[in-house]
Write a structure and sequence with these properties.
Blueprint lengths: L3 H14 L8 E8 L10 E3 L2 E3 L3 E3 L1 E3 L9 E5 L5 E2 L11 E8 L4 E14 L4 E8 L8 E2 L17 E5 L4 E3 L5 E9 L5 E2 L2 E14 L4 E6 L8 E3 L2 E3 L3 E2 L3 E10 L6 E9 L16 E7 L5 E13 L4 E8 L8 E8 L4 E13 L5 E9 L8 E12 L1
Length: 387
């Protein structure tokens, strides 16, 4: 496989093509609570968000017999009555709806809407707020006007409360809330009065956040990778002519420390004399972003050398194709230290889309024909980037 010149040109072209920085991806989201039966206290969601069930604080559901089979809510623990002479909300009597972005994303709330009515009374009022503060110490009141001159909630007629262009940012770990505080204005105790709710809807977009991610193959015991971040990694694989032998301890010429490393041999236990990289000798590592994500690979590191041999060379290549038909050289034909390893580090800038895989191969070869007990030493092969 004599590829040096063409791969060096390919690498330059690929580098120039991938110079663009990571761009955040956005996804639409929505959360809707129908509130038309006992099963719709749970929201139907779309997009990478999580919505909580409808929450009742000193309130409770009394049937679904409001306008358009909407949910009827009353004050709880008072024998279906509301106190007399109340002219403003109870801070401890409300119904709440909430939604949050799934980690590690943030959420932008663009719009909200709900339908509200009163039943069995013409003097029901309600304050509606939204907030990203669970205590509602900081909140925004939603202004709405019903048919009544006193701004009472319309009796037996669902009225839509709607707001758009909100542009409320909800970071990872935060929650967007809507609260409805109802009360009845009456000079005497009000019995059998309800606030009716239906079709509470919150929508906007989720913005993906770049997350440091990596995969490391220690190679000191088995093929299993260690994954950090939103990645899927494959076990190390070998060409048909190579296999794992075991592990040993060798000095690392880069760090000055002795390290445990894996040892790789040829299946035949002999090495043919080669003047360049050959296609039938390689060790392969592969990683992919989880579905829906991207993986911006920015660097690769590994420890590599020879064990009982100082005439090994190796090349390092990557590809998005499992057959390496578009393989690109990272390091070409570098002589390896004997009975030691050294650290290789290469900077890369390539984007792996959802459904694609980043393949990394080490191609070792020997410049002399040698027999048994000549092995490649390698450890801590690591692919770094952001998902």
């Amino acid at each position: 496989m004599k590829r040096k010149n063409i791969f060096i040109i390919s690498l330059l072209v690929a580098y120039l093509f991938n110079l663009s920085a990571i761009k955040a991806q956005t996804y639409p989201f929505s959360a809707k609570w129908d509130l038309s039966s006992t099963t719709t206290k749970t929201a139907a969601t779309s997009g990478p968000v999580t919505a909580a069930d409808e929450k009742f604080v000193n309130t409770e559901v009394n049937q679904y017999t409001g306008p358009n089979s909407s949910q009827r809510v009353r004050m709880a623990g008072t024998n279906n009555t509301w106190p007399a002479n109340i002219t403003y909300q109870f801070d401890t009597v409300y119904v709440q709806f909430s939604v949050k972005p799934n980690a590690p994303n943030k959420m932008i709330v663009d719009s909200l809407s709900l339908f509200i009515a009163a039943t069995s009374t013409s003097t029901m009022e309600a304050n509606i707020y939204y907030s990203t503060d669970s205590t509602f110490a900081t909140s925004t009141k939603i202004r709405y006007v019903d048919a009544s001159s006193n701004n009472y909630v319309s009796r037996d007629l669902l009225t839509q409360v709607f707001m758009n262009n909100l542009n409320v940012e909800v970071p990872e770990g935060k929650v967007f809330y809507i609260r409805i505080y109802p009360w009845v204005e009456s000079s005497s105790i009000a019995t059998g009065k309800y606030i009716a709710l239906q079709n509470v809807f919150i929508s906007g977009k989720v913005v993906s956040v770049a997350t440091p991610s990596s995969v490391v193959w220690p190679l000191t015991s088995d093929a299993s990778p260690v994954v950090s971040g939103l990645l899927i990694a494959q076990n190390v694989t070998y060409s048909d002519s190579m296999k794992y032998y075991g592990s040993t301890n060798l000095p690392n010429n880069t760090t000055g420390q002795t390290e445990k490393v894996g040892a790789i041999q040829t299946v035949s236990k002999v090495w043919s004399a080669e003047s360049d990289t050959v296609s039938y000798l390689y060790i392969q590592f592969a990683a992919s972003p989880k579905t829906g994500g991207t993986f911006d690979v920015d660097s690769v590191t590994l420890n590599i050398g020879g064990w009982y041999e100082s005439q090994f060379k190796a090349s390092l290549m990557f590809s998005k194709s499992p057959d390496f038909s578009d393989g690109k050289i990272l390091i070409s034909d570098k002589t390896l230290p004997g009975n030691a390893v050294e650290k290789w580090k290469v900077t890369i800038d390539t984007m792996i889309q959802s459904g694609e895989t980043f393949y990394l191969r080490v191609y070792p070869y020997n410049t002399h024909a040698v027999g048994w007990a000549k092995l490649i030493a390698i450890s801590n092969v690591t692919i770094y980037g952001k998902t």
